[in-house]
Amino acid sequence: MSPSPKIQATTSVYMVIGDPIAHSLSPRMHNAAYQACGIDSVMVAARVSADFLESAVAGVRALNIRGLACTMPHKAALCSLVDTLDPVAKAIGAVNTVVNNDGALTGYNTDWLGIQRPLEKRLALNGRRVALLGAGGAAAAALYACGMRGALVTVFNRTESKAQALASQYGASWSGLDATCDLAQFDIVINTTSLGMSQSIEASPLTASQLHRHQVVFETIYSPRKTRLLSYAEQAGCQIVYGSEMFVEQGAAQFEIHTGALAPREVMWGVVDDGESVSG
Ligand code: NAP
User: Fold this and answer.
1) Which terminus, N or C, of the chain has the lesser number of Cβ atoms within 10 Å?
2) Structural element, H or E, at residue 108
3) Could you tell me the residue ranges of all domains in the chain?
4) pLDDT for 53-83, tens place per residue?
5) For this structure, is 75 an active site residue?
6) Does the reported pTM lie above 0.85?
7) 193 touches ligand 1 (CB under 6 Å)
8) What is the number of the ligand 1 atom nearest to the C-alpha of 137?
9) Which residue is closest in CA terms to ligand 1's atom 42?
10) Shortest CA distance to 30 belongs to which of 16, 48, 49, 10?
11) How many whole angstroms separate alpha carbon 144 and alpha carbon 55?
């Protein structure tokens, strides 16, 4: 769906920033939502390299950009560039949503909701054993989302020191990540490594034999839609959760923070279903 045809002097401007950004579906998804709700706003995309992030944030204030959606690689750096950090974003250490109130910038994180809500549609998290693959920003959001519901999380990561550092913030367990890890005892497997993204489409953080039919396998990667890991999980008889579901949920929460209106999830889903690739 195209942006509102009635852009005028009073239209609020939102921006999604990242590097790369050309493949992002955020403008299409948010613009479709503004139109569906009759909100006089538009979202555009800007490729912002890490070197220019600080100037871009100054530009948000100067141009009175109403808010930001933010994707890789800026989520951690934005924490120190906003005036106020929402406590959840502070705990996770990453900002993916910024609101500009007359030059005062507040940073939020909605990625954790993109993980918690789809999981809770399938099962209660309390007491579940979760194998969390990866120890970066998305892993921090997943650990926050699962930990607050009483799930028992073990962080598995290629670089063990990062697994240890993340796990220790929440008193979680940790381990290295390789083909010898035994995951049979886990109810949920969440992949937050970037292994399997379009640049490494044949790769998977786990082998087929490490997955078991009683497990829910949650993928955060959304491009490609069905990663190698999800194919393995499907073959093993697991319940699978696509990364596109996370994308819509984190975007819906972002829309609600930006506009104060209830997100039209079906409209947002329609855009993502149509899209060939998706980026937060
Ligand atoms: P990040 O902070 O850069 O973390 C990347 C993680 O992947 C690290 O744990 C890293 O391990 C691991 N990794 C990278 N290459 C690897 C390899 N060859 N073998 C094993 N592990 C490898 O990235 P992030 O921000 O957390 O994002 C991670 C993923 O989440 C991305 O695919 C992103 O697209 C996705 N995501 C999706 C949504 C959504 O809406 N669906 C939202 C946010 C993020 P090391 O520590 O060893 O380097």
Assistant:
1) N
2) strand 104-108
3) 12-109+247-279, 112-241
4) 999 999 999 999 999 999 989 999 999 999 9
5) yes
6) yes
7) yes
8) 26
9) 280
10) 16
11) 30
